[in-house]
Amino acid sequence: MTGTYPYPTQAVILAGGQGSRLRPYTDDRPKPMVEIPGTGTPIIGHQLAWLAAEGVTDAVVSCGHLAEVLREWLVSARLPLRVTTVVEPEPLGRGGGLRFAAASLPHPDRPWYAANGDIWTRFSLREMAAFHDERGATATLALARPRIPWGAVETDEFGHVLDFVEAPPSPYLINAGVYVFSPEFAELLPERGDHERTTFPRLARERRLAGFPLPQGAYWRAIDTAKDLTEAAKELKGLSG
Fold first, then answer.
1. What is the pLDDT of residues 108-124, one digit of tens each?
2. Mapped to the 3 state alphabet, what secondary structure does 185-204 carry?
3. How far apart are CA 220 and CA 217, in angstroms?
4. Which of 80, 85, 221, 240 could potentially form a cystine with 52 if both were Cys, beta carbons 3.0 to 4.6 Å apart?
């Protein structure tokens, strides 16, 4: 990679969502504070450990719903990196919130990572940063191929059922909620609103937006519902077994 600092050492975690689909777990805590069963650690704890293992030394956590619960945990926990918390003075939307949080990064002239606060994943962020740099991108998003939550039916051209496939991989790649941004990206974000409807489409038209497919076998799961927590616990046993 180019530059004096080859890999980002700073990151933003967007942790302000209400997590309404995870109730009752989120009745008394923000979504990133929900624990992965069997680990004794909240989602954000796993994220911070992963970021630190990938060379991140400073993280800005954007808080919202029940921010004081998250802040109290961050103060009391033994964290592997420096953490700053920010709270939007008013709802700014996803893009505005990201811009607001980025203003607290310690090195605005260097690249940075960002992640949604409900993602539990493990893959090489350094490989993603190298991918970003090689393509000269302004922004790079990780791409996942999740499993469809329903069984699929295979048929032939005559309509005969050939097979049943339980939870097959999706034929489409999706935004995995993990990003690498060049320093100039923050200035392109809206002060209020959704960057996925404004900034990302603009960068895509200009061929400045890259997509990094998660490596084969990389673990990725978005924690949106109670079922996701159950599945994550099962997958954890499989990974450690």
1. 999 999 999 888 888 99
2. HHHHCCCCCCCCCCHHHHHH
3. 9
4. 80
